[in-house]
Amino acid sequence: MKKMDVLPAFVALLLGGLLLLTLFILSTTTSRRKRKRKPCLPPSPAGLPLLGHLPLLGSLPHRKLQAMAEVHGPVMLLRLGRVPTVVASSSAAAQEAMKTRDLAFASRAPSAMATRLLYGRDMVFAPYGEFWRQARRVSVVHLLSPRRVQSLSFRRAREHEAAALLRRIHIHVNSSSGVVNLSHLLISYARGVISRAVFGNHDYELDLDGEEDGGGGKKLRKVFEDFEALLGTGTVGEFVPWLAWVDTVTGLHARATRTFRALDSLLDRVLADHLAAKRRRDGRLTMVGDEDDDDEHRQDFVDVLLDVKEAEEKAGGEVQFDTTAIKAIILDMFAASIDTTHTTLEWAMAELINHPHQMRKLQTEIRAAVAAAGEVVTEEHLEKLPYLQCVIKETLRLHAPVPLLVPRQTLEDTELLGYHVPARTRVVINAWAIGRDRATWGHDADEFVPERFEEDDDVLNIVGGQQDDFRFVPFGAGRRGCPGAGFAVPSIELVLATLLYHFDWELPPPAANTGGVASSTLDMTELYGLSVRLKATLNLVAKPWSPRLST
Ligand code: HEM
């Protein structure tokens, strides 16, 4: 071979080798980079400097967030002032956050108002950790267990309050206008039921209807109203620290301090009463779990919590349930149950007024089940009322009382539908949007159609502990899901059946309800607060019904 022929061959070989080497290096670095690449953050709509997306939420944030999700997808990243917030708006996202990756999403976002009003020691807003685990165990096992909820004393409490509600309606029916302010009476009912469960038969006058009340009860009711309203209020300072002064100027801090002091002194009185009663008892009751059935069922929530405290003290370890924690958990129970129960009832009655066909269908079911049995609706009737359950499910689907659930916070770096969610991110699950998702519920997703659940039978067992269906999530789910659903549902069912058994309901003539403007339907505008309620007061005409009148 000539020297001149060898040179180009050598150069070609060298170049080929270099090319291969470059390709090899390129391919290994890209595949390493590929392996290392983190999933990206969720999409984020344009926000404003400093305030971020806060001003875009408006007065009904669940609706604004639903509209944003339609454009940006089921997982979005917002900035509420300085607080990064991930919003989940589909059942798949809810399922991943509350089931598949439940632990990573199991802490709570801090809330300045809750820390202030609930001593920073309550359960609902507690960060994930030992105190929350113990409080949750006590709630699930001792306070809200199915056995306790179905115990005779709790059933009597519900039936007693339903009977009181009935008496109050009769007073209004016999008044000159004949118009019943049902909103007001339903709040009284919800407050009465939880007061009996928490305080037993000690009367702190929380459940009195305004017109029967001398004064003390009225004052206390106002304190509780303020407490519920404040707890549903976000402070400006926690989102935009340089605007924290706004909370002082608007009087928010002063109101919170006043309300906290009033509640704290009531709770001191409650604990002192219960301790005195405990001392008077004959010493038969010792620790939770040792008592016989009757004793356990006679105990109210305060008794149970004091027993847990005593047991902890005797065991000599760390005491989680000191007096402060007990007071905080008592307030949790009021905050978690009154608004949610009463708004569900209010929405159910409002939807039925606007859907007379469904109202009649439900009344026919209830009246057929009850009429032969002495004209008093009891809890035995409830299991014979499948359509009633459909009505309640449909109400909760359309009007989740806590539409954005209680905000969670991630414990660690995690993912949601393939997007990266860093540790300590606030997480909001839009239960309201999920309940109205057309992809799940079809073209009539916004309509009140209880019949959609008739076929569904056992699906969406909303009270079930392990929820496997995320098509609607009014009680949340997973570790932080609502432990009070089993308590709430019988209270709601009993009173709805009672209202519809005893009365035919209709809108009052125009002058009484609409300022003179005739309307055949009720205005369903919402009002945002601790829960989302009907903006209008539910003023209705109740016409007594009895089997004798209808024959
Ligand atoms: C219609 C009635 C009710 C609704 C719609 C409702 C809804 C909710 C929701 C959405 C949450 C947050 C769940 C989550 O983050 O996944 C929650 C938590 C909670 N609810 Fe309810 N609730 C109701 C009634 C009650 C009642 C009657 C009680 C107690 C007597 C109660 C006690 C609680 C407690 C203690 C928590 C905090 C759980 C935790 O953080 O571990 N709820 N509820």
UniProtKB/TrEMBL annotation:
Question: Which InterPro entries does this UniProt record tie to the protein?
Answer: Cyt_P450, Cyt_P450_CS, Cyt_P450_E_grp-I, Cyt_P450_sf
> Which co-factor is required?
heme
Q: Keywords, A to Z?
A: Heme, Iron, Metal-binding, Monooxygenase, Oxidoreductase
The GO terms describing molecular function are: heme binding; iron ion binding; monooxygenase activity; oxidoreductase activity, acting on paired donors, with incorporation or reduction of molecular oxygen
Q: Which residues bind heme?
A: C482
* Similarity comment text for this entry: Belongs to the cytochrome P450 family.
Q: Which PANTHER family does the record cross-reference, listed alphabetically?
A: CYTOCHROME P450 71A2-LIKE, CYTOCHROME P450 FAMILY 71 PROTEIN
Could you identify this protein by its name? Uncharacterized protein
